[in-house]
Amino acid sequence: GAVVSQHPSWVICKSGTSVKIECRSLDFQATTMFWYRQFPKQSLMLMATSNEGSKATYEQGVEKDKFLINHASLTLSTLTVTSAHPEDSSFYICSAWGADGYTFGSGTRLTVV
Amino acid sequence: GENVEQHPSTLSVQEGDSAVIKCTYSDSASNYFPWYKQELGKRPQLIIDIRSNVGEKKDQRIAVTLNKTAKHFSLHITETQPEDSAVYFCAARTAGTASKLTFGTGTRLQVTL
Description:
Chain A has about 110 residues and is mainly β.
């Protein structure tokens, strides 16, 4: 079946630095990529939706200048958390839309210290 | 936008008993309703889904029912096993094949021996 590879699986960074998370669809073309954030014991909250070659659409309350999304090709989408702060610590998961429906990445645990 | 409510937030059942989780949605245009199982620190796994033109779907011990008029859908797990213990999320998708999923708040299911 469809596979989305997400890296890194976990990352610790210092406050004020930037972190890039990458999601790659391995055997299919992901026309649309969804980026979610999940705080402990909470649900998946959609941050933004991106389509290949166009600007991402951000959900209300999500700072587009802080969470930069690039969907430059049909197999690769990246999320960059800029100037990270401890409150950005969370589990970030991508979900690609393709022929098999929604395929989730394995998630990235971000800890900002 | 779509709003999905999920109940209960926690559910404890004895092994072999049935478990039922209920969700309601707000957007009558929603047409796809998946259920996901998520273990700690892992990606959500699709366990069953239903489309708006179907009232019920079953896959071995798992079944989902949909009442479009009342805008609610339910997950039924029969003959529960300890490995069914996890967090379960319902979701709803508004019309459009690559539209975003809106997730419910989650149900923590504990199956005790």
